[in-house]
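#lab-general

N.A. 3:47 PM
ok so I finally got the sequence cleaned up, no stray characters, all 671 residues accounted for. can someone with queue access submit it? mine expired

B.Y. 3:52 PM
send it over

N.A. 3:53 PM
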Amino acid sequence: MQAREKLQMETPPSLSCPSTPRWNVERPFLTGRFLQETKGISRLADTKGLSLDSFSSPGMDKAIGCYDTAVQELIVIDDLMSALIGIEGRYISIKSVHGMEDCITFQVDASMDLALQDYQAMVAQLEHQFRLGRLSIHGLWFYCQPLMGSMQALSTVVKKASANNCTGSAVLNLLQSQSKAMAGDNAVRSLLEKMTQCASKAYLGILERWIYEGVIDDPYGEFFIAENKCLHKDSLAQDYDAKYWRQRYSLKEGIPGFLANIAGTILTTGKYLNVMRECGHNVQVPSSENSKLMSFGSNHQYLECIKAAYNFASSELLNLIKEKYDLMGKLRSIKHYLLLDQGDFLVHFMDIARDELTKKLEEISVEKLQSLLDLALRTTAAAADPCHEDLTCCVERTSLLKTLGTLKDLETRAFSDDNGTEEPMSITGLETFALSYKVQWPLSIVISRKALTKYQLIFRFLFHCKHVDRQLCGAWQVHQGVRALNLRGTAIPRSALLCRSMLKFINSLLHYLTFEVLEPNWHMMCNKMQNAKSIDEVIQYHDSFLDKCLKECLLLLPELLKKVEKLKLLCLQYAAATQWLISSCIDIPKVEEVSDASLMSDKSKQWRSRSLSLALNKTTQNITVTESILKFEREFNAELQNLGPILSSNSQAEPYLTHLAQWILGIRNDQ
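B.Y. 4:20 PM
back already:
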């Protein structure tokens, strides 16, 4: 048999392990390195009464086989004790293995009596017995038996750690797994547990700084939490995926087994503390909770320390964001503007920005729109809102349907897969105008770029619905303006009925969006946030609110949304044609107004002739107008009729659509 001993070698500095001190090279006798350069002298060579020099001639070593077996035994015991501390003897020599400079093999003189070969098992040294002359080979073997299991376990750990190049948490996991594997041997298990406790002290020191300060002090990359320093907090205002919050700090592979079940809590605790530190907030964990993580024994005291640190960090950050940075106040302000909760500024803005919004995209001046928005905010009730200066405007480059199809995280695949999402030939600012909001750190953790994008999608849909409503109201006012005229024989009464149906449709849609979707979901979110225990719960409630609003506002239901957009387009086309339709119908001379033709003069006869000709032309034009109105009516009714069954069928799976379906069916019944 052969015994191997790993000698500590100098390791160049790297991220995986620290460098060894210089004395490891300069003082080889402290480390056993000198063995590779010179042969050691047996530390028992001058033992009184057993001097080994008496067994050989001066300056010359004989083969061990030349001695009597009893003498060989003494020599072997002496060399064994030297080998146990890494020093070669006279007949147990060191042999280097080619290609494995850090691995030393002890080779026994081949002439040794085979009966003495049992010494190669790992044994403990009982030097005092040997000095007294009471130790034989068999006695040495007997006394070493209690430590054989421990030495074997240590050998296994060293071999596995070396073979797998284990560092950091991998070493702790290896020691812990080996300790569990030796559950039946109390002595070995206790030894491995002790080694694990000692090896984990530095690791627990890194963990302490993280959960108590939010700082990673890990010069060799051994901690299971990684820091991406390329991501900065300012990126939250532009990054749709909010990578800073999710990837600035993240879990790595190789989590220690005793921390595996609580690794997420550890990650979150440090993240919370780091946020407060970057806000300039003094982070000081109460002394009662700042317990030292001395060990991770079976009493699970370390788990209680981690949970206490998490509870402190969570409540402290939540109070900071809610109280100092007024999270709910900011959300209410966003609701006023992006969810059109405060509509007076919008009416004023749409009046003064009408000309700019009706331009094509390439002709729109965003700077002019911003100045008009500022004017509308300053001259309405919005001026009382201290956050109104954070409101900005922008003009998107694509229609709402197209934008929905480009957002990869939304369930809108049908938008991009369907042929019904072609971009309109000419879209204007009315279809692409959107409001935005300036959100500063740390509120940008909750109101991220992704959250603002979802707010903008809802705003664009509401804004366009408001525009359709305004146009139809204008058409209705035109109808009301000609009520005093004689409209018999014209298509105006029928047009008025169509206009009323369109108004009822758009008003029902706006009522549903506002009072059936946005308001109830908003109040549910506010109630949940009052009971939130951490900032992650706040983020979850806010994101759930936006996702639910997107879905219930039909923005994640492609089939329904396309039908609604088609109906809105018909309403706009009809409203734009109303002025021409009505002007083409009024002032039609009625032939029966002249009661007695026999009393008319020649001049009157000529006037009657011209009037008859004009009336004939007007009648022809009225027929054209009537056909146009009937065409609008047929198309609107057909789209409305198609929408009804779709709403009814979807309302079975999506109960929130029930009221909208009832209103749509009510419009059809009125017609």
